[in-house]
Amino acid sequence: MEDKILIxxxxxxxxxxxxxxxxxxxxxxxxxxxxxxxALKERAEVRxxxxxxxxxxxxxxxxxxxxxFILNFYKSRPELLVAYEEEMKKxxxxxxxxxxxxxxxxxxxxxxxxxxxxxxxxxxHDYRRLTAEFSSRLxxxxxxxxxxxxxxxxxxxxxxxxxxxxxxxxxxxxxDEVRRKLKQLFSQV
Amino acid sequence: xxxxxxxxLLFTNFRAKVLLSLLLILILSACISSxxxxxxxxxxxxxxxxxxxxxxxxxxxxxxxxxxxxEIKKNPSAQAYMVRGMAExxxxxxxxxxxxxxxxxxxxxxKAGDWAxxxxxxxxxxxxEQQGLEEPAGRLLMVLSEKGKFSPVVQAALGRxxxxxLASLEKLFERERETILSKTIDLxxxxxxxxxxxxxxxxxxxxxxxxxxxxxxxxxxxxxxRELGLxxxxxxxxxxxxxxxxxxxxxxxxxxxxxxxxxxxxxxWIKKWNWKDEExxxxxxx
Lengths: 189, 286
Description:
The structure holds two protein chains of two kinds. Chain A has helices spanning 3-18, 28-42, 46-51, 53-57, 67-75, 78-83, 85-90, 93-108, 112-117, 119-123, 127-150, 154-166, 175-186. Chain A is mainly α. In chain A, helix 2 packs across helix 12. The longest helix of chain A is centred in the last third of the chain and has 24 residues, at 127-150. The two termini of chain A are 17 Å apart. Chain B is mainly α. Chain B contains twelve helices and no strands. The radius of gyration of chain B is 26 Å and the shape is flat.
């Protein structure tokens, strides 16, 4: 598929959705990215999925992982090992656990919405900024989505955009390829 | 002329009758099909859940609830309330489900009374917990986990109880931690004995065994959970991460024949699951 078709499609989608979000909204592109991935992967009801974000992102079991699991999470990811070198050296489990609660849904469970919301931090390996801004940015994004969702026509437009996206022939590509392509092209939109 | 106009009249009458019949069929099928549609949606939702298509399952549960409500408006029956209650339970609408089951019981459905009671107790436990009344909430969750008969409620109660107990471990000394872990493992084990096909119980047991550093057993339970199916994607992914964690720990702690045997088993499983390699499940990106 030609990049131009997709870039045009994404530009159009961004333009349509921007009517529902305030200027400088943080949630617009993450919502679009995650909705397209969800639509492609599960052909799900996008509205329900977006509205369920908060439930999805806070499974209780994350809070109670054993120390060894948390240490292993950092050790098996070289970029995290570099970022949290000091805490790892000191075995500062309090600090590591606190950061883990933010990092695990994004990096461990690979949630597409969070990965888009923190795309810049992931790209720059700025994990400290990700953990520091996790709650505030997520709350802001969720409230933006709620406000957009209350505006007439938002869900219809989003579902229509996802439907249009599926018709571009993505089923032939793997999820990995689609994610990579979308990420690459989102920066140009 | 007369014959022509009679033919025309006959044809018009015939067409009107056909249209009327079609309309009647449509109206009748619409009247009788709401409950059937709700049942079909409910069954399809369960099948989707079993094959891990959670979002589609949720949509179908919502559709089942809507169809059952439509049926109830037209023709309230115990069966319609039961179907609606089942859909509401799966959607986590506890108080609505309790009401639906209570109404089903009023209309003569025997087991609905017990289900309504359990659903309502679980809803009460959640609300007590939210108000900071931890002790009574814990007691209710314990009763439901031990004696509950309605599987969706038992799963929710047991999951919540395990979370609470694991959260309490941090503040305890080693011996107390061990006691709490043992008791919780026994509790989950008993549930597995009574319902061995529930993937979620095996997931919980795998997590608990991980806390005890029993990685081979934890891996085995996580593998069983994966095979039996886990409804929620984040739980499924967390379970896969547990499998990888156990693999990494066991690769370091085992040696000789034990290690070779474990690696052989592990590779067979990941081949079956279509993983890219030992540490990359199908959903994970490199």
